[in-house]
Every structure is written in structure tokens, then in C-alpha cells.
């Protein structure tokens, strides 16, 4: 026979009130209903917890032994209720976010800052960097990527959508001849007449440029490769070659470099993707962050 935490709490109220009738009044329950629950509890435990004494009760040795455990249970359940209230009101909680370095640094930080200003009690754990293919995606509340993840890699509890679209442009020194000529755009064959500074192979911008060149039937040279967007900036500024970057990222850092549209008149664009859990698996904190991101999903 099983018993519930409520049965233990009923016993506690009766014991502290000194009788079944008094305990029933404290619980706003009928005395027969309370007596029935106490009888069920004693049967489940296999021994009596109290004996009647006049108009009240006297605890047995088993009842005396159970009493401090029952008080501890009440304290624990009170803490659970307080914890639940804090999470319901977004006073506490944690969000785990994974994002590529570029997305984290140039697209996400301002949204996270706004979220923290609204909900300072919610902790944010951000993993910024390359997203390994063997990552357990279910370990994260939100995942921001520079290209879509294979559908076969995602569990059924996760969804994926394009989140942001941005233009990729060529970046070059301000004293470059093309800049002095007043050019605003450049086609792929002309781009390949120049030395190119490439980001590391897992860079989303690099892969998008490589895909565009491949679609145009062109094969680039890989003379200079750097790791990180800051290294790219320094290499281009030093005259090692032209590079590629996103318009929004360049607007934020305001580098002393010039930019040009690629592949006119279409331009070159890329989509950033968001992976998120289905609605029943989202916390209130996660739903609030989606609101800050302007996403009604």
C-alpha cells in the first residue's frame, strides 16, 4: 500500500494541533476525511502513529520518530513552492546557449544584454565557438549556427529556422586602388585577381564564399589563412589581401577598412539559423528570451 506526501503533512498538522478535530479545523477539512487519510497512512506504514487520549491524541514511538521527518518534508515542499514561484515570475533560472563565434560576438550580445536588463535573476551560460558535429544538441536551450544543421542530426524535440539574413561583402584597405577608383561592387573573376585572406575552414562566411565561387565555376587560391575575425582585420589592414565579412558585423566594429558588394547586381547573402525546442519543452525563461529576439514561434 502506498501513501503520499500529503498524508505525511496531514499527520503533521494533526500532531502539532494535538488532535484530529483540531487538525481538521486547521486544514479546513472534515474530521471523517482526515481520519480516513490517517488510517490509510498507518496501514501503509504498518504501525500506529498515535493513540487517542481524552479529546486529543498521544503520539506513539513511531509517531514521535516520524514527526521531525514530516517537518523536514514540509520545509522542503515550502522551498519547492518558493522555487516554483521564482521561476514562474522569472526571478531565477538558467538558459544554456550555444553559438558560433561570429553569431555570439556580432549578432547575439545586444539581445542578451537586453534580456539581462529585463530579467536579472536569470543566469546565462553562453558557449561561443565552433559547434562540433557530435554535439548533444539537446543539452542546449538555444543553438545559433552559421548554416543549417543536418535534419538527421536533430532529435524530434528540436526545430530549426532561418533567424537572420545578412550580406557578405569584400573588405579591403581604404587606400586600395579599387577604393580610390570609387568602386562599390566587384564580381568574382575580378576578386580572384587579388590575394585573399581566408578565415579558418569552419568559418560560415568562408564556406558561403567558397560555395558561391564553386557555383560560378571558379577555383580560389589559399595563400593566406588566419584564425578569428580580429586576425582577418589585421591581415587585411596590413595589405596581405582582401577578405570577406558580414555587413552587420562590420557595422558594429567600425573597422578602418573599406567594403564592397560582391557578385553584382545580386550580392552575396547568408542566413543564420536558430535551433530551438518545441513549445512543451520550453521554460518560461526561454519563452521570454524568444520574445526579446522578436520570435513568435
Automatic annotation (TrEMBL):
The keyword Chaperone does not apply. GO terms for molecular function: DNA-binding transcription factor activity; transcription cis-regulatory region binding. The keyword DNA-binding applies. Keywords: DNA-binding, Transcription, Transcription regulation. Residues 1-60 form the HTH lysR-type domain. InterPro entries: LysR_HTH_N, LysR_subst-bd, WH-like_DNA-bd_sf, WH_DNA-bd_sf. It comes from the Bacteria. Belongs to the LysR transcriptional regulatory family. This is LysR family transcriptional regulator.
